Amino acid sequence: MDHTLLILGLLKLEEMHGYQLGDLIDKRLKYLTDLKKPTLYHLLAKLEAAGQVTKSVSREGNRPERYTYRLTKTGEAQFKELLRQNLQAAHAAYFNDDIGLLFLSEIPAAEARGYLEQKRAGVDARITEIAAATARHDAGSPAYYTLRHHELHLETERAWLAELIAHMKKRAARQNIIACLAEADTPKRKK
Amino acid sequence: MDHTLLILGLLKLEEMHGYQLGDLIDKRLKYLTDLKKPTLYHLLAKLEAAGQVTKSVSREGNRPERYTYRLTKTGEAQFKELLRQNLQAAHAAYFNDDIGLLFLSEIPAAEARGYLEQKRAGVDARITEIAAATARHDAGSPAYYTLRHHELHLETERAWLAELIAHMKKRAARQNIIACLAEADTPKRKK
DNA sequence: GGGCGCATGTAATGAGTTACATGATTGA
DNA sequence: TCAATCATGTAACTCATTACATGCGCCC
Questions:
Q1: Is there a single domain that holds both residue B48 and residue B68?
Q2: B92 interfaces chain A, CB cutoff of 8 Å
Q3: Do B13 and A178 touch (CB under 8 A)?
Q4: Which nucleotide is nearest to B58 (CA to C1')?
Q5: Confidence of residue B189 (pLDDT cuts 50, 70, 90)
Q6: Is B36 within 7 A of strand C by CB distance?
Q7: Which domain holds residue A150?
Q8: Can you give B4-68 as a three-state secondary structure string?
Q9: How many structural domains are present in chain B?
Q10: Strand C close to A150 by CB, under 7 A
Q11: pLDDT per residue over A52-82, tens digit each?
Q12: I need a surface site. Which of A49, A80, A81, B32 has the fewest CB within 10 A?
C-alpha cells in the first residue's frame, strides 16, 4: 500500500494537521486503505525527517495543540514521482478469500455452503453501504471513481460467490487439490 | 494475508519439504499470494515451535537434505479453525491503484491518460496469461475456482479502466478533491 | 459526572522483504 | 564451464499494528 503517496497527495491538496488527515482517511477514504492513526503519525514523522513536509504548531481556543503539515518542494517532487509510478503500474491484487476457497473441499459441503452464504451476506451488506456512499458523490469526481471501483469489484465478488454456491449444489466432489495443481503443469521432463 | 492457513492446508493435503512448498506457491498459486521463500521458512519454523507441524530429515541421492513437514493433531485443529474463520468473513480488499487514481487530476490530463493506457495494457497482459492458466484446469476443481476468481476481477478492472479513460476524454475538469470528499458528509453541525 | 471527540504520540511486537551465504547437481 | 535448479536458511531492515498513555472540552 502506497501510504506515502496518499499522505503527500492529501497534503498537497490542502495543508492539514495529523488528526484531520487521520479522520479523512478513516471516514471518507475507508475503501482505499485502513491506515491506522499511530501508523499515520509515524509516517508523518518520517516524512518530516526526510524534509518532505514541514510542521507548524497552532492552537484553536483551548483545544490541544495541532501540528499542521505542509508539503515542501522536495515533497512535491516526491509526490509527482510516486504518482507517476503508481499510475503506470498494474498492481497485482490478492484476495484473502481465495486461500480459504482453495480448501473448500476439506470441510463437509453443507457446512461450507453455510459459510459461503454468510460471506455472501457480508458482501451484500457492503454493497448496500457503498452504493449509498457512491450516490452521495458527483459522478466524475475523483472520490466517485474510487467508490465506483470498489462497487464494481464487490459486484464481481457477489456474482462469483453466486456461481460458486450454485456449482456446489450440483456436485460436492472432494478432489485432490495437489494433483489438480500439478496436472496442469506444462510437461517438462518425461511425459 | 492468511499465510498460516495456506501452509497448514497444503501440508494437510500432502506432506512436503520446504522447497517443494515454496515452489508450489511460487509457480502454481501465484495468483493467491506472493509469499517469499525466506518468509515461508520462517513461518515453518514458527509452526514447528508451536507444535503444529513436525519435521523429518530425508535425503535423495546426493542432493541437499530435505526437511519434510507433516501436520500434527493440533496443527489440524488449527487448520480447521482458521479455515472456518476465513470462509465466513467477507474480507475487505484494497487496491493500490485507487490511491493514484484519487490524484489523477494533479497531473496533465493527456499525460494521465497515457499512464492509464499503460495500466490497461498491463491488465490485458495479465488477462491473457490467466485465461491460459484457467483453460488448463478442470472447471470445478479448487484451483480452477481461484483462477476464475482472479479472471473475473481482472475483467472488472479492465472494464473500469475503459470507463475511466472514456470519461477522461470527455471532461478533463480539475476538481477540488478535498471539497468533494467533505461535501458528501452527512451534515453534523450548522448547515 | 461520564463518555465521546479532539489531539498527539510511545513502546513493544509482529509480519514480511531484501540481501546475503552456502554448496551440490544438472543441462546447454 | 557457466548458468540454472535444488535446498536451506540468517541478519538486517522496513512497515504496520496493538496496546498504552495523556489530558482537555463538550454534550447529555
A1: yes
A2: yes
A3: yes
A4: D7
A5: very low
A6: yes
A7: 96-183
A8: HHHHHHHHHHCCEEHHHHHHHHHHHCCCCCCCCHHHHHHHHHHHHHCCCEEEEEECCCCCCCEEE
A9: 2
A10: no
A11: 999 999 877 777 789 999 999 999 999 999 9
A12: A49
